[in-house]
Amino acid sequence: MGQVIVETSDLTKTYDGFTAVDQLNLGIEEGEIFGFLGPNGAGKTTTILMLLGLTEPTSGTAKVCGYNPTREPLQVKRIVGYLPEKVGFYEDLTARQNLKYTAELNNLLKKEAEERISALLATVGLSKVADEEVAKFSRGMKQRLGIADILVKEPKLAFLDEPTVGIDPKGIDDILNLMVRIAKKGVTIIFCSHQLPQVQKVCTQIGIIAKGHLVAEGPIDRLGRQALGGGRYRIEVQVSQPDPKLIELIKNIKGVIDVSGTPESLLVTCDTDLRSQIAKTTVDSGSSLIGMKIEEFSLEKIYKKYFREA
Amino acid sequence: MYAIFRKELADQFNSRRFVILFALAFLAAIFAIYIATQSIRSEVTSSTEFIFLKIFTTSGKNLPSFLFFISLFIPIIGIALGFDAISSERSSGNLSRLLSQPIYRDAVINGKFLAGLTVLAIIIASVIAIVAGLGLRIIGVPPSSEGLLRLVVFALISIIYGAFWMALAVLFSIFFNRAATSMLASIGLWIFFFFFMSVIAGAIANAQVPLGSNPTLEMITRNSEIAGAIARISPCTLYGEATAALLVPELGSLNSAIMMISTLTAGRMLTPLPFSQSLLLAWPQLVSIIALAAICFAVSYIRFMRQEIRSI
User: Do the Cβ atoms of A54 and B311 come within 8 Å?
Assistant: First the structure.
């Protein structure tokens, strides 16, 4: 794993007596897609605003790429892209003109900017409408334009605040795929959301925030194990005329964590998809296999568990 | 900041708002010229020195002068250019995107203000130029160099006055999230200053120094002093007085009672003051307008710099 790119220590923000972010300690490594999860009003956006230097922390410190966002906001903003939740563009300008303005604000050379903008518009699939006014764009198109907008400055780190809210399923897929592609190019992404399945699809690491506290942080599978007390998959095996030793045999398969249930209907928890091994073991033991159902734990379960605790 | 200035300027020029404002100002100019040509002959006597400036100040029987028109329009133009400066950025979702770019935050407000000021200057200068040009063509009397100087200073004051209203509107656009609220607040303040301030000033002066049926000269002077002092809280009064001092060289004092009395005692039109004296007369008003504009801008600047971008 790479270097730590975002680090906060005891980061706190109080608005008129209300603590939005409470002693947050966060560490995000380079090259990750970090899922920043939490219900509305948990303090996700406030955290991002502090990391960008748009809001001053009440106490505690933050470091983004080695810079302090409160003291050196320009250095941070030069290498960090931010896609706000309710992103807007100048509606009477075209997509290309909007991106050009961003390029100008970033002091890019005109020629370089033009080439980069055309390439980016192609990346986000907006080449055909590049010279149409943004007013005609759908929400999904605006979000994709927003992603192009933050890439204009070729950032090291990108904050995407609820980029998939209010978008149709196809649009959501487009955005998630884009995120994966950007991450492959070496941009660290912080993806704020409360849409769990989407976070699960793309994120390697997650942090869960509730009422300003970070309640869980780490790789998804580890959190899942912690939350569910078991492996990542749960396989239900239905067997008729089970061999008495079958439970023992399945337990001996490498990777199986636990076996429970009745002999006719076994519940196997494991870290990898062991269906073929289980099937082979079952058949080899002389029992007849009727069916198998696999269930991957969902992030929702982790999420709900932590919220109950918070 | 240059990028913001250029974009804002381009936005202003491309907007319908600019076309409407310019058309409005253009109409005012044409109308003022019409009124001036209708009634300028009766105003001009053989002793009149600054015939050219009369184009700007001559009013018809029931029709107002160009000076009145422009004092009405400048606040409207200023407010129209500034009322949604920040609030529209916020409500359209552009503000946080803009502020996450590597620019100093004050570049946003400076760039917007400068762009507005440029547009304002262009509108005011072109309107005055239209009136001056058409006036020259119609009455055929070229302005003296002093007349021209007075006109240039008049244009400058007008621009600063417009800048004050724009700064005020920008200020409201920072404080209020909705553009409509900020526009209403600016227009409300303008109506108060323009229409009610003189009435209030008169009422207070009359309460302080009742004139009765047979007032002495001293009482009249005192009364008009008090009324003037209170009315000068209003930037509209300040602008009116400053421009009157510049465009009506015969004006020897800004106290209406003293003027009236001296006209009566002299029994004729007064001789015009030299430019430096007129400027001196308008100086306090001029400085006050500049100060008001500066204060409004400074408050908006500080407020905008300190304003936190909130998630909610």
Answer: no
Inter-chain CB proximity A104 and B96 less than 8 Å: no
* A94 vs B275, higher pLDDT: A94
| Other Cβ atoms closer than 10 A to B191 | 12
Domain that holds residue B68: 2-306
Q: Which of A44, A85, A106 minimises the CB distance to B102? A: A106
Number of separate domains in chain B: 1
Burial zone of A209 (CB within 10 Å; 0-12 exposed, 13-18 middle, 19+ buried):
buried
Name residues of chain A where pLDDT drops below 70: 1-2, 224-232, 297-299, 305, 307-310
Does any domain span residue B289? yes
The residue ranking higher by pLDDT, B264 or B10, is: B10
Please give the ipTM for the structure prediction.
0.81
Is A71 in the B-facing interface, judged by CB distances under 8 Å?
Answer: no
Determine contact: B1 vs chain A, CB below 8 A: no
Tell me whether B309 touches chain A (CB under 8 Å): yes
Distance between CA A158 and CA A164 in Å, rounded?
15
The model's confidence at residue B312, banded by pLDDT at 50, 70 and 90, is very low
Confirm whether B311 is domain-assigned: no
Residue B312 resides in a domain: no
Q: Is A300 exposed, middle or buried (0-12, 13-18, 19+ CB in 10 A)?
A: exposed
Q: Enumerate domains of chain A plus CATH numbers.
A: 4-219 (3.40.50.300), 229-301 (3.30.70.100)
| Residues of chain B found within 8 Å of residue A80, distances taken between Cβ atoms | 100
